[in-house]
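Good morning N.,

You mentioned wanting to compare the apo and holo forms, so I went ahead and generated the holo version with nicotinamide-adenine-dinucleotide. This is what I fed in:
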Amino acid sequence: MEFSGKTAIITGAASGMGLLSGQRMAAEGANVVLTDVNEDGVKAAAADIRQSGGEAIGVRADVTDYEQIAHAVELTMKTYGRVDILLNNAGGAPSRVFGRPEGFKDRDIELLDWGIDVNLKGAVLFSRAVIGHMIEQKTGVIINMGSIEGVTGSGAVEYSAAKSGMIGLTKSLALYGAPYGVRACCVSPGPVLTRPAMANMKTLLGRAAEPGEICDFILYLCSDKAAFITGSHHLIDGGRSCGAP
Ligand SMILES: NC(=O)c1ccc[n+]([C@@H]2O[C@H](COP(=O)([O-])OP(=O)(O)OC[C@H]3O[C@@H](n4cnc5c(N)ncnc54)[C@H](O)[C@@H]3O)[C@@H](O)[C@H]2O)c1
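and this is what came out, ligand included:
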């Protein structure tokens, strides 16, 4: 019960790695606040966790809307009295999420805005909303979900730019939070099998990651075992960033 007595907020928690991280944290004793634009999804997921003996609530929070973020944090404080972990996980490449493969010069401005707002600005806003509470508690961890594409660049130009920004955000939060016992780390996965198409992306190890392989590492970074780790960026990419052999 690694996270007994701790409270975690997770964004983009209705599916994929956000949902799995929430389920695993709850299984380790955390009070989990699952947030997403998919309100039905997070409410159903929270009910499942409660049914299996864990503690969770599901709250609608669009990471591009500060009022909804502030409401989710307020509800967390009212329900559990503290926030120890923030996993800024909501995101995705607009071309993949909306099935819009057109190249950068033809991409709608709305898609570019979505890519930056959900993948970067949302994490800035959510971090702003929780860090005061973490500072007051003198403890807390913020994990930002990056991507291999934020390191190598990709055809998803706005996505890669936003994910690169997550590294700078992480280092800045680490500098800001360190005097108060608040840590921040960035995790950048290579292809992960939350989407079947990711099986086609090459890695040195010849396969994509299982979602659990990424979530295990996120949980480690959130735990007290990682108390000396902050400001760091962690690629989990099966060697994809190494280039051609
Ligand atoms: N799957 C991969 O191969 C891969 C690789 C590298 C990085 N990532 C990153 O990992 C994170 C999770 O990816 P996943 O594959 O589990 O994705 P997923 O599509 O299963 O989950 C993303 C969640 O974000 C939610 N979301 C979308 N817009 C939102 C908004 N405005 N506010 C709140 N929630 C919103 C969606 O409803 C969804 O539940 C993303 O940030 C993604 O960019 C994924």
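The chain has one domain: 7-240.

Happy to go through it together on a call whenever suits you.

Best,
F.
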